[in-house]
Amino acid sequence: MANNHSFVRILGVLLVLAMYNHPIIVYAGEGVPNVALFTFGDSYYDAGNKVFLSEEKNPAQTFWPYGKSRDDPNGKFSDGHIIPDFIADFMSIPHGVPPALKPDANVTRGVSFAVADASILGSPAESMTLSQQVATFETMKSNWTSDYIKKSLFMIYIGTEDYLNYVQKHPGADATKQQAFVTSVTSQLKTDIKSLANLGARKFVVQLLAPLGCLPIARQDYKTGNDCYELLNDLAKQHNEKIGPMLNDFAKSTDIDGFQFSVFDFYDAIIRRIERHLNFRFYVSDRSCCGVGTHNAYGCGKANVHSKLCDYQRSYLFFDGRHNSEKAQEEFANLLYAANLNVIQPLNVRELIVYPSGERMREFWEPTKISIRRRPPQDDSYTGFSTY
Ligand SMILES: *[C@@H]1O[C@H](CO)[C@@H](O)[C@H](O)[C@H]1NC(C)=O
Ligand SMILES: *[C@@H]1O[C@H](CO)[C@@H](O)[C@H](O)[C@H]1NC(C)=O
């Protein structure tokens, strides 16, 4: 009895000692290396760069109701956090990634080069093209070692501006002209990705374009009522079809050693949330929470616009005319980080981060859902993964 007693005491002491020696720390992204996150693209990923390029002294996105859910309007286009903020959290990056144009930003764990109104082609006003963003990365590159850059994540979302402008300027373009335009956009994108790779980037995450004709701004501008504007959706689809094969080519080519990537099917993720919005607890998916017009798509946050603001932004898929609510952004970040091949392939972001740096990929992007390996085909292709 006495023996047992002291045994228990010793065990207790050992346990306490063990706890001091190996404190149990559980945090997001455990086991994931401390690498940086670099984001490129337009307002979806803009961490506040537009504020530095805008002639307007106090642009709308720096004012309530932007940032409403966090009581922090900070130049991001959402009622709160945007996708890269959540990804940064998952990667245990303490305060998200700062805008590249902010003086004296701490860039140790990465930076955002994305800026609202950015396009792939052209010379957008008070903004930057993707090539200009890549050039900015080049000027700052010596902040990081090449080994660190190689292990870090390069996330890209861009193209919306190109297609919205194109359709506005060429409403009657025929199929051949449309295809030619898509080809010029995607070839420039390819050139820009190649430039990043030449600067040492190796881990790419490309978010496919949303069904652009379903954005409240497109429904409002083209007066489609409850429908999406098919021409814009079609251009987005044509664009998206080229991304997987393009990245496969990079990964298979021998020019660039160890090129690795993930392609997130943002198009379908939005479509699922529009078609079956209640399954995702979005009560409104065709109008935005904040703005004026038939679909509340204009002027959110503008001082001279008396825009409507919904009561509860988490029940809206879109916060303003073209950007998702924070709740939706959080869902997309979770999909990017951890979803299966129905949603992101050939690797999700967590897998991409831990995939050995410098190694060639063993799996590649595949065009059809039939090829999805983890789940047998089903009659209703949406059944079974409405959580996605
Ligand atoms: C910058 O951020 C890194 C990592 O988040 C941190 O370790 C470092 O102390 C920061 N530097 C300054 C000057 O705040
Ligand atoms: C590091 O980044 C800062 C921007 O935060 C930039 O001003 C600076 O030139 C960069 N330093 C180097 C050595 O590249």
Task: List its traits.
388 residues; alpha/beta; Rossmann fold; 6-stranded mixed β-sheet; 10 strands; 10% strand; globular; binds 2-acetamido-2-deoxy-beta-D-glucopyranose; lipase activity; SGNH_hydro_sf
Concise structural overview:
With 388 residues, the chain is of the alpha/beta class. It has a domain at 34-267 and 340-371: Rossmann fold, CATH 3.40.50. The chain contains 12 helices and 10 strands.
Outline the structure in words.
Pfam families: Lipase_GDSL. Residues 1-28 form the signal peptide. Keywords: Signal. GO terms for molecular function: lipase activity. This protein has 388 residues and is of the alpha/beta class. It has a domain at 34-267 and 340-371: Rossmann fold (3-Layer(aba) Sandwich), CATH 3.40.50. 37% of the residues lie in helices and 10% in strands. The protein is built from twelve helices and ten strands. The protein has a six-stranded mixed sheet, sandwiched between helices. Helix 6 (160-169) packs across helix 9. Bound molecules: 2-acetamido-2-deoxy-beta-D-glucopyranose (NAG) (2 copies). Residues 94, 106, 108-109 line the site of one 2-acetamido-2-deoxy-beta-D-glucopyranose. One 2-acetamido-2-deoxy-beta-D-glucopyranose (NAG) binds next to loops.
